[in-house]
Amino acid sequence: MPGIRGPSDYSQEPPRHPCLAINSKEPFNAEPPRQVLVSSYVTPVEFFYKRNHGPIPVVDDVERYSISVTGLIDNPKQLFMKDIRNLPKYNVTATLQCAGNRRTAMSKTKTVKGVGWDVCALGNAVWGGAKLVDVLELVGIPKLTSATWSGGKHVEFISIDKCKEENGGPYKASIALSQATNPAADVLLAYEMNGEPLNRDHGYPLRVVVPGVIGARSVKWLDSINIIAEECQGFFMQKDYKMFPPSVNWDNIKWSTRRPLMDFPVQSAICSLEDVTIVKHGKITVKGYAVSGGGRGIERVDVSIDGGKTWVEASRYQKTGTPYNPDDESSDRWAWVIFEATADIPTSTEIVAKAVDTAANVQPENVESIWNLRGVLNTSWHRVQFRIGKSNM
Ligand code: MTE
Questions:
Q1: Domains of the chain with CATH codes
Q2: Which partner for 31 in 49, 227, 257, 373 could form a disulfide, CB atoms 3.0-4.6 Å apart?
């Protein structure tokens, strides 16, 4: 593809912030420290988690860079950056979360396969770009296509990177055409992150952002868009990022029995405390994030300072200083909320948070009930242990 290439080794990786905790070096997978993550509502690019499956592509010439839109359509098109930029530009504040967020805690129950992540494999950014619905209209696919549309049913995004899971081929994923052509779904072909051109780690020059859906469907370094009849048959759709019941193991797994993960469930985590924090007597501030997928807002965040026996409701905000109200038109429907509660240091040793979304979905109490061999979607109550001692907290 002109203007961009996917190298087959790691000799041309971009610079990264030294505070990131590296969970795997090649491919580069890293997350920020907990306290850094919740120090701002919009996550600075340098502190945004990075989730890769191969070496980072190199853009030689952004003017020559183009994507093709092809498949079950009458008039395939090649689109250059100027064509994408000529479409109306939207800024969508959306939280991107990896399905493997909090995998490390799930693996404590029983081993799981996958890169280990603490609670920071997510971030909240202002994504700027064209709506996919407008791009699809250029090739003759109308807005709001439904199951009765005679053409394809899925939109596949194919990248340029080289992944070993795809036997050296590119990363790819798909979403339903009905979602892709729904203007309210806010699916973007993004060229900006927080008002700056995307950086290399996050998909420069162009990536997909599918708000409310696990990060795996937001394909970076976009090469082509393919309109297809069945969902994408790639590894990351069919042999990964699926959630199996606790009874399924590597000997009896049948991948085709489960659907690829899409919307993520309600999630929250405490970020003001590490797993074991030493605190002094007095007050403690419990601060973290809560988010749900599918455009559902956060109805409530409950915090317990006695291991889940009693609860208080945390305050929630998006923009600092304004209490969050999911019904408010000005709230960011695809974005997390930051929550905060202050309490007296208790005599017990476990602090817990759980969130409830606007569809009344609640995080499950225990990780055991949702354990799965790939360690995805650990949304169990987030618990941190602490000890009382000499500290500045
Ligand atoms: N796109 C490509 N081309 N290659 C990838 O490895 N990783 C996916 C998704 N898009 C990936 C990709 C996964 S699993 C996640 S969680 C998000 O990108 C991470 O996006 P980020 O690195 O910008 O945070």
A1: 4-257 (3.90.420.10), 267-388 (2.60.40.650)
A2: 49
In this structure, the number of other CB atoms found within 10 A of the CB of residue 365 comes to: 14
Cα–Cα distance for residue pair 235/373, rounded to 1 Å: 16
Cα–chain center distance at 60? 28
Name, in order, each residue with C-beta under 8 angstroms of 194's C-beta and a sequence gap of 6 or more.
Answer: 42, 44, 45, 125, 126
Structure tokens belonging to residue 9: 């080794």
| Residue closest to 170 by CA, chosen among 26, 53, 72 | 53
Residues 6+ apart with CB under 8 A from 111: none
Residue 273 contacts residue 257 (beta carbons within 8 Å): no
How far, in Å, CA of 371 to CA of 247, rounded? 9
Strands 4-5 vs 312-313: parallel, antiparallel or unpaired:
unpaired
Query: Is the C-beta atom of 207 inside 6 A of ligand 1?
Result: no
pTM (2 d.p.): 0.97
Tell me what pLDDT residue 215 has.
98
With tokens 């052509």, the residue in question is 181
- Give, using CA atoms, the residue closest to atom 19 of ligand 1: 51
Helix or strand or coil: residue 345?
coil
Tell how far the Cα of 40 is from the centroid of ligand 1, in angstroms: 22
> Closest ligand 1 atom to the C-alpha of 208?
10
pLDDT digits (tens, 9 = 90+) for 89-124: 999 999 999 999 999 999 999 999 999 999 999 999
Distance 327 CA to ligand 1 centre (A): 31
Sheet of 172-176, strand order: 77-80, 66-71, 224-228, 154-158, 172-176
The sheet with strand 50-51 has its strands ordered as 21-24, 29-31, 50-51
- What DSSP string runs through 328-344? STTS-TBS-EEEEEEEE
